[in-house]
Amino acid sequence: MKRVLVFAVLVSFMVSGGVSIASTLDLPRTGQRECFDTSGTEIECAGTGQDGAIRAGVAWPDPRFVITHCGADGPCKKQESDCDNDPSNDVVTDTLTGLMWARYAGAGTGTWAAALSHANNLNLCGHADWRLPDCCCRHRGCCRHEWRPT
Ligand SMILES: [Ca+2]
User: Fold this and answer.
1) How far does residue 85's CA lie from ligand 1's centre (Å)?
2) How far is the CA of 79 from the centre of ligand 1 (A)?
3) Phi and psi of 27, rounded to 5°?
4) How far is the CA of 119 from the centre of ligand 1 (A)?
C-alpha cells in the first residue's frame, strides 16, 4: 500500500538571556504527485488535501544529482569528462541534501563489519571521512547482516 509521506514543519525556539529566537526551515517538496484512498487506490487529488494535491515545499535543485569525476589525486581539473576514464573513483552529490556517495560501490557481498572497515579506510576523490548510513532496514529484516553494494 502506498503511503503519503507527511513532513512536519520544524520550528524551534530558543530562549537566551530573556530574548526569544524563532527559526524556520524550508523543507523540500516530497515529490508526491498522486493521491490515494484508504485502500491504496489512486484517486483524483483535487480537494483531498493530500501532499500530492498540495505539493508544498521548496523546489528541488536542478540538477539534483551531480557526478564529480575524480582521478587518483582527487577531483579532475576539468569536470566535462573523467580524467582517468575510471568511474569507480567518481562520486555523486545530492545537491538537495548535500550527501555524497561513491558512484560505483562495487559488487559482491560481505559482512557488516567488512563494510564498516571498508568505509573507515576509504579515501575517495579526496575524501577520507566516508561512513555507512544507518541501516534502518535491519529492523525490517532486509539486511541480514550482509553488505550488498549496488
Ligand atoms: Ca574517475
Assistant:
1) 5
2) 10
3) -85, 145
4) 18
CA separation for the pair 128, 130 (Å, rounded):
6
Measured at the CA of 61, the angle between CA 55 and CA 67, to 5 degrees, comes to 135
| Rounded distance from Cα 78 to ligand 1 centre (Å) | 12
Ligand 1 centroid, distance to 71 Cα (angstroms): 5
Domain spans of the chain, in order of start: 11-54, 65-147
- Condensed to tens digits (0 to 9), the pLDDT of residues 68-86 reads 999 998 999 999 999 999 9
CA of 76 to the centre of ligand 1 (A): 8
Contact 147, 135 (CB under 8 A): no
pTM: 0.61
The three-state DSSP-derived secondary structure of 86-98 is CHHHCEEEECCCC
Specify the residue for cell string 530573556. Answer: 18
Q: Per mean pLDDT, which range of 81-90, 114-123, 130-139 is the poorest?
A: 130-139
Ligand 1 centre distance from Cα of residue 6 (Å): 38
